[in-house]
Recover the amino acids of this structure.
C-alpha cells in the first residue's frame, strides 16, 4: 500500500485518479538533469485504470538538494523507495539515465518489478568529453547544445527550449554528476540477468542513445519487445507521446 510520499521527502507527480491496490502501478524515472514532470503525458495513463507516479530523483525537482553520483547508488535509493511504497511489484519505466537505473533495479531485485520499460536508453551511456567539460565550464550553453541533440530535427522548438530550462534547474554540479554517472555506466555483462517482461522504445532519430543501443538491449534481454518510433528523437515520450502511451498500455495489458 502506498505511503505518504511527503513523509519520505520525495518529489513526485501522480495521475488524477486516486491510488487503488487492485490496479497495476507504473513508476517513471527521468533522465540526467531532469525531473518527474517530463512524464506529464504518461501520467494521463491513469485514466485507463493504472496508478501512475513520476518521481524526482534526489537533487532534482522537489526531492531535496542532496544528489547521487552513480547509477548503482541511484538504483539502491530507488529500491528502498519502492519497498517503502508498495507491497506488490510495479511497472518501472525509465528514460536515458532513468533507463540505466531501471536496468540496475531489475538486476538487483527482480521481485519488485512486474514489468520493465526502457525508453531511449542503452547498456552503455558514454558521454562526449566536450559535454562533460562544458557542463562545468560553460554550463548553460552546453545544456542548450545537448538539447539540440535530444529532439528530432522537426521537433517543436518550444520543446527544445523547455527541455533546456528543465535541465538547467538542478545546476551545474548535479547535471555534471548525472552525466558522469552515465558515462561510467555499463550493464552489458548483466543484461542476461534481467528476467522481467521488458518493452524497449527508441526514437528512430535518437542521437544520444541511437537505435543500435536499443537493438543491443533487445538482443540480450530474453523475451523483450523492441519498438522503434519514426520521426522521434531521444525524448520520444514527449515528441510522440500518443504512440508511446499506446505501446505502454498494450505492454501492461499483456503482462498484468
Amino acid at each position: 500500500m502506498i505511503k505518504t510520499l511527503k513523509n519520505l521527502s520525495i518529489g513526485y507527480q501522480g495521475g488524477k485518479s486516486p491510488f487503488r491496490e487492485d490496479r497495476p502501478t507504473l513508476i517513471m524515472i527521468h533522465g540526467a538533469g531532469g525531473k518527474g514532470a517530463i512524464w506529464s503525458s504518461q501520467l494521463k495513463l491513469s485514466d485507463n485504470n493504472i496508478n501512475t507516479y513520476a518521481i524526482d530523483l534526489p537533487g532534482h525537482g522537489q526531492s531535496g538538494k542532496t544528489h547521487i553520483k552513480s547509477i548503482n547508488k541511484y538504483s539502491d535509493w530507488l529500491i528502498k523507495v519502492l519497498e517503502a511504497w508498495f507491497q506488490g511489484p510495479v511497472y518501472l519505466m525509465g528514460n536515458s539515465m532513468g533507463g540505466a537505473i531501471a536496468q540496475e533495479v531489475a538486476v538487483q531485485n527482480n521481485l519488485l518489478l512486474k514489468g520493465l520499460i526502457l525508453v531511449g536508453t542503452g547498456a552503455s551511456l558514454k558521454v562526449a568529453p566536450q559535454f562533460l567539460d562544458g557542463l562545468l565550464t560553460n554550463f548553460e550553453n552546453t545544456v542548450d547544445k545537448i538539447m539540440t541533440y535530444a529532439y528530432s530535427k522537426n521537433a517543436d522548438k518550444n520543446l527544445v527550449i523547455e527541455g533546456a530550462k528543465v535541465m538547467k534547474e538542478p545546476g551545474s554540479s548535479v547535471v555534471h554528476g548525472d552525466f558522469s554517472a552515465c558515462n561510467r555506466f555499463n550493464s552489458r555483462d548483466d543484461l542476461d540477468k534481467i528476467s522481467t517482461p521488458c518493452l524497449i522504445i527508441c526514437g528512430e532519430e535518437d542521437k544520444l542513445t541511437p537505435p543500435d543501443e536499443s537493438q543491443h538491449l533487445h538482443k540480450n534481454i530474453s523475451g523483450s519487445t523492441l519498438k522503434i518510433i519514426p520521426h522521434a528523437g531521444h525524448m520520444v515520450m514527449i515528441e510522440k507521446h500518443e504512440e508511446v502511451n499506446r505501446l505502454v498500455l498494450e505492454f501492461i495489458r499483456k503482462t498484468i
In short: The chain has one domain: 5-255. The CA atoms of residues 12 and 234 lie 22 Å apart. The first strand starts at residue 12 and ends at 14. The beta strands are 12-14, 25-29, 51-55, 90-95, 113-119, 198-203, 225-229.
